[in-house]
């Protein structure tokens, strides 16, 4: 049997938690620390081999991810919204930088055909990444086979993978569970910043990772998973602010399902004459090289 990605263990595992504590009074704190580890750990062990792919298998939905990371005076902040609908499935991802609004990168993978499309904001066209805003290229096999390879869920999968890694390394990483209003449940797991970096929740350049010493590595990044009474995901967040090794770090990531997707959530393609065709891997590699240079300039 094909092994499923580790990244989705955490959400499948947490489904059992709801049935155990969904009847608690709103605002009730469930066990913390070592007690929480025993309480929730038992639920993990029961279902860790029976995955409910809450992020990757949910269909006909729209998602959003708000991602903010700051290291000393360097920061990035972006919002990624996505939609997936139909069978076979159409997928669209919209990436917006809140630091540099002209830095727009959208992708659209239609259900039919062998190509997908990328839309570049004006700044990238001006910098010569492509002569047109729209670019087409062959569909990536990984995006069709590996659930977490799709840009709409890539970062949430890495968040989930980091949470599972922290739990498997130390069951005491589970810091608390809380019953919320309307039968919702929130679970908090402390993820060491070292795991956050290693799993590339935020892809950091060497100029930053080289400055991350032992104090920052052990800093805790609380990950909070909020679930509906039926076990479906409400939100998945990581938020922390800490200092160490002479540096200040602040981060906030929040992923949530935002509604039901339809064909109206998908972009409309321009005339073929307004689309630059990248026919093969060599052309794609050159495109991504120019894109990387433009983003680094």
Keywords:
13-stranded mixed beta sheet; 9 helices; disordered N terminus; alpha+beta; 297 residues; 35% strand; 13 strands
Give a quick account of the main beta sheet: strands, pairing sense, barrel closure.
Answer: 13 strands, mixed
Helix segment tally: 9
Structural class: alpha+beta
- N/C terminus separation: 46 Å
Looking at how many chains there are and whether they match, the oligomeric state comes to single chain
Average pLDDT taken over every residue: 83
Could you name the ranges where pLDDT drops below 50 across 5 or more consecutive residues?
1-22, 43-52
Describe this structure in words.
There is one protein chain. By secondary structure, the protein is of the alpha+beta class. Helices cover 28% and strands 35% of the residues. It contains nine helices and 13 strands. It has a 13-stranded mixed β-sheet. Strand 8 and strand 9 form a beta hairpin. Helix 1 packs across helix 2.
Task: Describe the protein's topology.
Elements: H1 9-21, E1 29-32, H2 33-47, E2 61-71, E3 74-85, E4 90-97, E5 104-109, E6 115-120, H3 122-126, E7 134-138, H4 141-145, H5 154-169, E8 174-179, E9 185-192, H6 193-198, H7 206-209, H8 214-217, E10 220-227, E11 233-244, E12 247-260, E13 275-277, H9 281-296
Parallel strand pairs: 7-13
Antiparallel strand pairs: 1-8, 2-3, 2-12, 3-4, 4-5, 5-6, 6-7, 8-9, 9-10, 10-11, 11-12
